[in-house]
Amino acid sequence: MVNGLDQLFVNLKHALVGLFPAPVQPWVSVGVTAVAIVLVFATLFAITTVLERKGLGRIQNRYGPNRVGLPFTQLRLFGFGQPIADGIKALIKEDFVPARADRVVHFLAPLAMLVPLTLTFAVLPYGRNMLPLDLDTGVLYFFAVGAGAELAVFMAGWSSRNKYSLFGAMRAIAQMISYEVPLILSAVAVVMMAGSLSTRRIVEAQLGHAGWLPDWFVFTPWGLAGFLIFITAATAESNRSPFDLPEGESEIVAGYFLEYSGFKFAIFFMAEYFGMFAAGGMAATLFLGGYGAPAPWLEWIPSWAWFFAKMMGFIFLLIWLRGTLPRLRQDQLMNFAWKFMLPLALVSLGAAALWHYMAPGLARWVVCTVAVAGPYLLLGRGLLERKGLGRRVYRFAE
Amino acid sequence: MTISFLIIAVVTLAGAIAAVTLRNLVHCALALVGAFAGLAAAFLQLDAQFVGFAQVLIYIGAVAILVLFAVLLTRGGEPPQPQTFSWSWPWGLAVALAVLGMLAWAIAGSVATRRQPAAQVEATTKQIGDALMTRFVLPLEVAGLLFTVALIGAVLVAMREEGKSE
Fold first, then answer.
1. Which of A25, A253, A310, B152 is the most exposed place for a label (fewest CB within 10 A)?
2. How many distinct helices (H) and strands (E) make up chain B?
């Protein structure tokens, strides 16, 4: 029974594929997986938009959407019918293209944004035997394909012929390139420890339990540092608050998708959420044991439920951050990436090497913790002192 | 020659030709991205996953962006020039053909053609990594040093000189 629930979707797929004649079975198998991924994540996107708006409302002491329910019924569903209304609205709005815009590039940009981010879902292990594409170079594939989104941002910003769009695109590209370095470096430490670039192997390396603690990489000094660096860089990579300068409404209206309306805007919106899902899924895979349960007595909960729970935990964190933190300034953003995140990512890489070569025991924990926390404190203090920040003085407000 | 190779070849060549013939520089750069993607697909079709994805990560993720930045920061805002013809084109063509002929002649006469094609090897990413860390570690380190020097140089160029600020 437990196994049946765990392997439910795998068995379902096998049964479905078995209905077709043998020659076309590989194609049907690929098609079924692709359709399932797109449907699941599109639905999740719809649910997450409501969750985000309700969550932000909660943080700001207001209700958030709670009116729209199922059409033609009295069912309100706590406002979870909102995505249906939003989708219809996006579809029937005028598709506005500026007169001087580069029409071809303007049209292609949303697609160039969505396709790479959807492709990244192929290498995430959603559960036991639920890895769509078991590549020898899965992690590399993830980052390589994700890099395509930067180009789409540029295409959108440049083709709109709007100075704010172009500003937004330039900011976005500078930010994405800068934060990609610590993002990949923190993943490299995991790849080194797991000894493989395959996402399946990385998860399998974390499935054991040592006492009451699971063998997740996040429960090691270097892993914790790597995890924090990874999620910070991933937040910046998906242009989310507090790193949402490319969209900075107060300065550049909406950034690179300023000149998009209707369904093209919806695609950009969807791509942003897909990027968040992909980042959350990768963070879970690399550091949080992927689909593994945190304790042996929790194994009865299906593996795919654990994966999605960890991924949605990351999404929750992002919503929480968005409701809490103010936006950074551009120079702060760049300094943070190059002067703070990058050195710390290198330090955590070194700590991972130390961890690998030292014998298991208390000494390893102490040495690696000092190796990670020491530079963090010193660097943080040093950078703050050079800023010469004192107590904030209000000239006019008091 | 399979159908997939044919598609990849057509896409790559079309992208490359568009990159040199289009008049708008940004369009050229974007067409170049198409050619890069085609090359990556060709690597993947040959089952060279690491090289293929590295091609995507480096060329599409970094080099193409660099090209676009360079175009925008120099003369990207200018309207595209009308089609022109220059008498230096035939000369350029002649020189290019001469170089091609020379290279083809040299390659045809070299030992590379007499070498037996290697048996089907399974080059995994792990083997590439092992080779880079053992046999080819010196070239790797030299390349790393070169990039570090370039990085420091870039920082020095960008750094505001003391006393000259403001």
1. B152
2. 7, 0
* pLDDT confidence band for A86 (50 / 70 / 90): confident
Q: Say yes or no: A196 contacts chain B, CB-CB below 8 A.
A: yes
Yes or no, beta carbons of A144 and B26 under 8 Å apart: no
List CB contacts (< 8 A) between A180 and chain B.
Answer: 61
pTM: 0.84
Select the residue from B32, B53, B72, B73 to test the A interface by mutation, using most A Cβ atoms within 10 A: B53
Task: Name residues 133-172 of chain A within 8 A of B (Cβ).
Answer: 135-137, 140-141, 143-145, 147-148, 150-151, 154-155, 158, 166, 170
CB-CB under 8 Å, A196 with B61: no
Tell me the DSSP string of B78-131. Answer: SPPPPP---THHHHHHHHHHHHHHHHHHHHHTSGGGTSPPPP-----HHHHHHH
Chain A residues touching residue B61 (CB < 8 angstroms) = 144, 147-148, 150, 180
pLDDT surpasses 90 at B142: yes
Contacts of A155 in chain B (CB under 8 A): 30
What is the ipTM score, two decimals?
0.77
Chain B residue closest to A162 (CA)?
B77
Residue A210, H or E segment: strand A209-210
Contact A151 B124 (CB under 8 A): no
pLDDT above 70 for B78 = no
Boundaries of every domain in chain B: 1-75, 124-160
* CATH topology for the B1-75 domain: Four Helix Bundle (Hemerythrin (Met), subunit A) (1.20.120)
Are A327 and A248 contacting, i.e. CB atoms less than 8 angstroms apart?
yes
Q: Are A375 and A343 in contact (CB under 8 A)?
A: yes
pLDDT at B82 over 80: no
Domain spans of chain A, in order of start: 10-92, 100-383
B72 touches A at CB < 8 Å: yes
| Span B85-130, pLDDT tens digits | 677 888 889 999 999 999 999 888 877 767 776 666 666 777 888 8
Mean pLDDT score across all residues of chain A: 84
Give the chain A residue whose CA is nearest to the CA of B37. A148
Between CA A175 and CA A233 the distance in angstroms is 10
Classified as helix, coil or strand, A202 is helix
For A180, nearest residue in chain B (alpha carbons) = B61
CA within 13 Å, CB half, A128: 16
Token pair, residue A292, equals 């593994």
pLDDT digits (tens, 9 = 90+) for A161-213: 888 888 888 888 888 888 888 998 899 888 888 888 888 888 888 887 777 78
Concatenating the DSSP letter of every residue in B47-66 gives T-HHHHHHHIIIIIIIIHHH
Whether A310 contacts A294, CB under 8 Å:
no
